């Protein structure tokens, strides 16, 4: 990055100069004290766990010349010991970081078409549906979300649904360098609460749905705050796309500054569906929906379930607003998939094999109930539970699978520092509350092999819990374990005669 005047980097930040002046050159802003040096500005972020103001002295010892604070000076006596520094005070260092990062990267958000998605469920799937539609239309699309950062052939792991503001602008800039013209990103309630998307005016904002989630220490104080934070997105987008069937939509649009477009199964929506076909055929499991309103069309979506209809309508309405032709929308959605989210792995015309990230009772119940609508001969549910996590989750998942699946195959997930058999015994506690049939196969590869070798015509086999993950964590070590690779290995080992 080129050096910039501090005054230029602060052009969209409210501040006062406590010490020094603005006639200093910097080439970056940092909020990790370990990265501070003579060429960058250190922004003291106050987080849930730590406070950047505690690390001011170490950054100064590393040669940092610019410090951005929000605490009062009397709380920071170390600053008095350093003469040749500039200290900037602002009401919110989180907002300052966002504004300064945008300036450092020359406002990349303004050079992209930006699409933000918020809601409790459906954000990831909707984002990839939109990506597939827009790329079918000829655009090059980057994605920021739960499963990582995607831009062309590049992939970057992402620990948070929505990264810190600095990283957002960094990724926007990288997307432009990769030739992207559009970015679709998941925007979490925490990101909105913590100003990670501060000063970004998204071109399109999407609301999927809302249910109680992320409420507790270091997250949201209560459900009302959770709802309010979600609604903040619609104060910073031009066009808003809303699920009219969700009871919280009225709160989302209450203070919105965007224009409003609605979708759902209610005929008062701008785009609505009045019918769903549950379709399963060799190599395809999904839905067909009849659309009315702004689009009159029958569209097939290659992801099963009513929730996929909602996600698809959100994607379709956004694409329509952008100007995508219906033929591109239909072509993309008939082949769309999201890694690890009800992902079809085609290995047989006799049965259907799906990989999904469902790793708690609620998501398992939703998925198994959805799959039952396809009238399979059997639902085979393979799953385990994470170690060093709540035992209640294990009981609940065992009971849910026992109640809703025809056969449960209990196996390992990320056992971490627990013995896998202890975890399985906990799962069996819930399983035994039902009359569901089950087998225990602790080795996950062998459990998958069992499911493939014993599948019957018309079965739907679900490999649950790993989803997009490509590892198993055992005794603190992450071992390679991508279920798609494992399936291929199994097929190579046993041959395909059993499929014929």
Concise overview:
It contains 15 helices and 26 strands.
How would you describe this structure to a colleague?
The chain is of the alpha/beta class. It folds into three domains: 4-104, Udp-n-acetylmuramoylalanyl-d-glutamate--2,6- Diaminopimelate Ligase, Chain: A, domain 1, CATH 3.40.1390; 108-333, Mur-like, catalytic domain (UDP-N-acetylmuramoyl-L-alanine:D-glutamate ligase, 3-Layer(aba) Sandwich), CATH 3.40.1190.10; 343-499, Alpha-Beta Complex (Protein-Tyrosine Phosphatase, Chain A), CATH 3.90.190. 31% of the residues lie in helices and 25% in strands. The protein contains 15 helices and 26 strands. The strands form five sheets. Strands 11-10-9-12-8-13-14-15-16-17-18 form an eleven-stranded mixed sheet, with helices on both faces. Strands 19-20-24-21-22-23 form a six-stranded mixed sheet, sandwiched between helices. A hairpin with a 2-residue loop joins β16 and β17. α3 runs parallel beside α5 and α4 crosses α10. The model has no long low-confidence stretch (mean pLDDT 94).
- Which class best fits the helix and strand makeup? alpha/beta
Could you give the distance between the termini?
59 Å
Largest sheet: 11 strands, mixed
Question: What average pLDDT do the residues reach?
Answer: 94
Please mark out the parts with pLDDT under 50 across 5 or more consecutive residues, or reply none: none
Number of helical segments? 15
Helix percentage: 25-40%
Approximately how much beta-strand content do the residues carry?
15-25%
- What's the Cα radius of gyration? 25 Å
Total number of strands:
26
Spatial order of strands in the largest sheet:
11-10-9-12-8-13-14-15-16-17-18
Question: At the first level of CATH, what is the class of the largest domain?
Answer: Alpha Beta
Our count of domains comes out at: 3
CATH architecture of the largest domain: 3-Layer(aba) Sandwich
CATH superfamily of the largest domain: Mur-like, catalytic domain
The CATH topology of the largest domain corresponds to UDP-N-acetylmuramoyl-L-alanine:D-glutamate ligase
Q: Sum up the overall morphology in one term.
A: globular
């Amino acid at each position: 990055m080129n050096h910039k005047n501090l005054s230029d980097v602060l052009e969209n930040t409210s501040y006062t100069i406590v010490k020094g002046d603005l006639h200093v050159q910097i080439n970056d802003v940092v909020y990790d004290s370990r990265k501070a040096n003579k060429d960058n500005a250190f922004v003291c972020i106050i987080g849930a766990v730590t406070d950047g103001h505690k690390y001011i002295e170490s950054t100064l010892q590393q040669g940092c010349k610019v410090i951005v604070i929000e605490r009062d000076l009397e709380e920071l006596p170390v600053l008095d010991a350093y003469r040749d520094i500039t200290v900037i005070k602002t009401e919110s260092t989180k907002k300052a970081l966002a504004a300064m990062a945008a300036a450092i990267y020359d406002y990349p958000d303004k050079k992209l078409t930006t699409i933000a998605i918020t809601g409790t469920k459906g954000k990831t799937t909707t984002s990839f549906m939109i990506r597939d539609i827009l790329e079918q239309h000829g655009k090059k699309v980057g994605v920021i979300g739960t499963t990582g950062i995607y831009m062309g052939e590049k992939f970057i792991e992402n620990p948070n649904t929505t990264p810190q503001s600095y990283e957002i602008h960094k990724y926007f800039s990288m997307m432009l360098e990769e030739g992207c013209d559009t970015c679709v990103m998941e925007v979490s309630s925490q990101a909105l609460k913590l100003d990670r998307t501060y000063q970004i005016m998204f071109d399109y904002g999407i609301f999927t749905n809302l249910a109680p989630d992320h409420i507790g220490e270091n997250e949201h104080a209560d459900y009302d705050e959770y709802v309010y934070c979600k609604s903040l997105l619609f104060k910073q987008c031009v066009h808003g796309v809303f699920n009219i069937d969700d009871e919280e939509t009225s709160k989302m649009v209450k203070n919105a500054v965007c224009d409003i477009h609605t979708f759902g199964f209610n005929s008062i929506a701008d785009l609505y569906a009045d019918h769903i076909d549950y379709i399963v055929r060799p190599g395809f499991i999904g839905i067909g929906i009849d659309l009315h309103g702004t689009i009159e069309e029958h569209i097939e979506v290659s992801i099963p379930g009513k929730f996929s209809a909602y996600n698809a309508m959100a994607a379709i309405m956004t694409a329509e607003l952008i100007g995508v032709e219906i033929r591109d929308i239909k072509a993309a959605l008939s082949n769309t998939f999201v890694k690890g989210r009800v992902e079809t792995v085609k290995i047989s015309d006799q049965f259907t094999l799906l990989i999904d990230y469902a790793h708690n009772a609620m998501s398992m119940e939703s998925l198994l109930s959805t799959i039952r609508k396809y009238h399979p001969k059997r639902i085979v549910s393979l799953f385990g539970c994470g170690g060093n996590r709540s035992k209640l989750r294990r009981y609940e998942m065992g009971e849910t699978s026992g109640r809703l699946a025809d056969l449960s195959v209990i196996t390992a997930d990320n056992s971490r520092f627990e013995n896998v058999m202890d975890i399985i015994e906990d799962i069996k506690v819930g399983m035994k509350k039902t009359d569901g049939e089950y087998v225990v196969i602790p080795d996950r590869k062998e459990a998958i092999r069992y499911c493939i070798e014993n599948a019957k015509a018309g079965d739907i086999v679900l490999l649950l819990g790993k989803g997009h993950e490509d590892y198993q964590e055992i005794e603190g070590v992450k071992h390679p374990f991508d279920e798609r690779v494992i399936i291929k290995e199994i097929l190579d080992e046993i041959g395909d005669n059993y499929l014929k």
